Amino acid sequence: MPAHVGPPTPRRMLLTRKSLHSYHLGMKTTVSEKGQITIPKRLRDRLGLRAGTVLDFEESEGRLVARKLVRADHLDDLVGILEIPGGVDGYLDEARGPGPAER
């Protein structure tokens, strides 16, 4: 393999079957015609990326940066959606009915 001086350019870049799957130099992937990429398994495992994980992408200084979004507990979405006249205590008193001392 010839040695090149300076940064690789598309003309100088020599890709072999071995270098396409070589992770010791960095982890590489190719963008598909649909704009999709495959995140290498070692990275998925290390970062805990599973099917359904949501990633947030941004561009920063010419780099593509992805961040894993950690969703809050699904029950957090329900907090405060009900308006209860008299508050929760009033609702519970009404739902339970009169206690033994009130009968």
Describe this structure in words.
- The protein has three helices and two strands, in the order ααββα.
- With 103 residues, the chain is of the alpha+beta class.
- The N and C termini lie far apart (94 Å).
- It is 20% helix and 12% strand.
- The protein has a two-stranded antiparallel sheet.
- The protein is rod-shaped.
Topology:
Layout: H1 17-20, H2 41-47, E1 55-60, E2 63-68, H3 87-96
Antiparallel strand pairs: 1-2
Mean pLDDT, nearest integer?
78
N-end to C-end Cα span: 94 Å
**Which structural class matches the secondary elements?**
alpha+beta
Shape: rod-shaped
* Helix and strand element order: HHEEH
Strand order in space, largest sheet: 1-2
Beta-strand residue percentage: 5-15%
In total, how many beta strands? 2
Radius of gyration: 28 Å
Structure summary:
The protein is α+β, with helices and mostly antiparallel strands. It is built from 3 helices and 2 strands; from the N terminus they run ααββα.
Key features of this structure:
103 residues; alpha+beta; two-stranded antiparallel ribbon; 12% strand
